[in-house]
Amino acid sequence: MIEEWKQLSSNNAKSHGNGELWYEIEQTIEELETYLEANSEDEIAWVQYKQFLNKRENMNRLLAEAYEGSSHLLLQA
Length: 77
What we know:
With 77 residues, this protein is mainly α. Helix content is 84%, strand content 0%.
């Protein structure tokens, strides 16, 4: 978790990087859900799906910690 925080704190993450990373995670989850609808027996895809759900959860937690105390308008920007 500390390594993820360091990564988010980097210059790239401070700029547009968070949005791009969030978008990539969401897109991958959507693609895996679509794939798993047709291939529900693919165990590797299920593992990857669970990993990306965990990444999204960690990202939510880290962003909440980073923006704790910030105004709602700042979070929307």
